[in-house]
Amino acid sequence: MTRAERFVNFKVVIPAHFESTRFPGKLLATIRGQTVIDRVINIAKKSGATDIIVATDDQRIAQSIESSDCEVIMTSKDHQSGTARIAEVVAKKNWASEEVIINLQGDEPFIPA
Q1: Integer Cα distance of 26 and 85 in angstroms
Q2: What is the average per-residue pLDDT within 16-24?
Q3: Which terminal residue of the chain has fewer beta carbons within 10 Å of its beta carbon, N or C?
């Protein structure tokens, strides 16, 4: 049984912060010709999620994924964590409390699909 079969409807939100302390701009770094954030989006697409949203506070990230067929929601620069960024998306989308939401970190390009 695949993950998609276990969770008939689930959403993936990818928090994507540009200003990393140790490696600023790492989501736009390339690995074998593909940015880190694009690799993560492609992993999310293989999951069977009903929605895939990138939550970012940076136009550079938003612009870099325009052709990815993935929704982008601009979030506050004031968030201290990816979870807080996702909470903002949940509020903006007005999702029900029983929705299954997967927090797929934007800087995990090798996580299995």
Answers
A1: 18
A2: 88
A3: N
